[in-house]
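Justification of resources, computational component.

The compute hours requested in this renewal are based largely on the per-chain cost of generating structure records like the one below. Each record pairs the submitted sequence with a full structure-token output. That output is archived, and it is also reused by downstream analysis tasks.
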Amino acid sequence: MDWLNEYVIRLCAISIAICISKLVLPGGALKQTAQKALSLVLLYAASEPLLKLLIL
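The structure output for this chain reads:
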């Protein structure tokens, strides 16, 4: 069950980073790029258990 706690904590941390980047970064290309990059990181983190299952 520890892996589930780590999984949820990791997703929450990435979501918080996305929210903070929306608040802190000024509008423009940098903000859009950072949001897209963090969204890709969140997508990877959310799908990581499925990817591990398919690879093994």
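The mean pLDDT is 90. Residues 29-55 form the longest helix (27 residues).
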